[in-house]
Amino acid sequence: MNSTPIWHTASERGPRTVNADAVGAFARHGHSATFALADGVGDSPAAARAARVAASAAARSLEENGPVAAILAAQAAVRALDGKGDAVLVVAVPFEGGYQVAWVGDVRAYAWDGVLLHQVTHDHTLAQYFRDHGQEPAPHMEHVVTTSVRTARPDEIGTAVAGTGGLVLTSDGVHKQLSLTTMRDVLARPEAGAAGLVETAIGAGGRDNATALVVEPTRLADLRTIPIVTAA
Questions:
Q1: Alpha carbon distance 213, 90 (integer Å)
Q2: Is residue 100 part of a domain?
Q3: How many Å apart are CA 167 and CA 92, to the nearest integer?
Q4: Could you give the CA distance from residue 172 to residue 210 in angstroms, rounded to a whole number?
Q5: DSSP codes joined into one string, 167-226
Q6: CATH number for the domain including 65?
Q7: pLDDT value of position 4
Q8: How does pLDDT run across 193-214, given as a tens digit for each residue?
Q9: Which residues make Cβ contacts (< 8 Å) with residue 15, sequence separation at least 6?
Q10: CA angle, corner 154, sides to 153 and 158, nearest 5?
Q11: What is the reported pLDDT for 232?
């Protein structure tokens, strides 16, 4: 991949005190963009700052070093803060077959080809841990992450491949509010995009920050004359 794709992002604070979600994107000359989405742990300025620092550091990590190195760059940046603030993070680094993805926590990445939406990440939460071991989790476990930017060891960082031209990154304020089918139906509307996902999540009663980043599949991007751009 050697050209910057059409992408757009949207974010809403919802009923929280601050918006502790952040998005980062960076493309060096002659390269496609690396994308990152971070969700600060908690509802505080420190959480928001950690998310912004993590997303920026991850997106600006050298593409050739891969997504795990991007997570570790974000970790170094967050640990260099004043000891306060943490975040969960997903980062997508382009390669010829799509995107290499790494993550910590419960932010998600989906492969999106304009028709099919496929989740490629696996939540690092206490609830998912119990499900993976055949047990039904308590509801509060959905919000307890088992890895984060500040605390994760390298071997705890999740990795996956989104092997299509399109990509969707979301914070849990989107994907824990909307089913996969609903998300796909929203994305199928050409005018919706990232803003449509966020608006639908908040409209459905979302109680968290809601953020989405959508990279258009190539075959759809070629049909669009005006990209939808909503700043997070």
A1: 11
A2: yes
A3: 9
A4: 7
A5: EEEE-HHHHTTS-HHHHHHHHTSTTTHHHHHHHHHHHTT--S-EEEEEEPPHHHHTT-SS
A6: 3.60.40.10
A7: 66
A8: 999 999 999 999 999 999 999 9
A9: 207
A10: 105
A11: 38
228 within domain boundaries: no
Q: H-type helices in the chain, by residue range?
A: 45-59, 66-79, 126-132, 172-175, 180-187, 193-203, 218-221
How far, CA to CA in Å, does 23 sit from each of 11, 162, 170? 9, 18, 10
d(CA 165, CA 221): 10
- Which strands, in side-by-side order, build the sheet including 98-104? 21-26, 34-40, 87-95, 98-104, 158-162
Instruction: Specify the amino acid at residue 15.
Output: P
Q: Residue 200 sits in which domain range? A: 7-221
Segments of the chain with pLDDT less than 70: 1-4, 30, 219-232
**Residue 110 phi/psi, 5° resolution?**
-130, 140
Q: Give tens-digit pLDDT for 12-53.
A: 999 999 999 999 999 987 678 999 999 999 999 999 999 999
Query: Is residue 227, in this structure, part of any structural domain at all?
Result: no
pTM for this one? 0.92
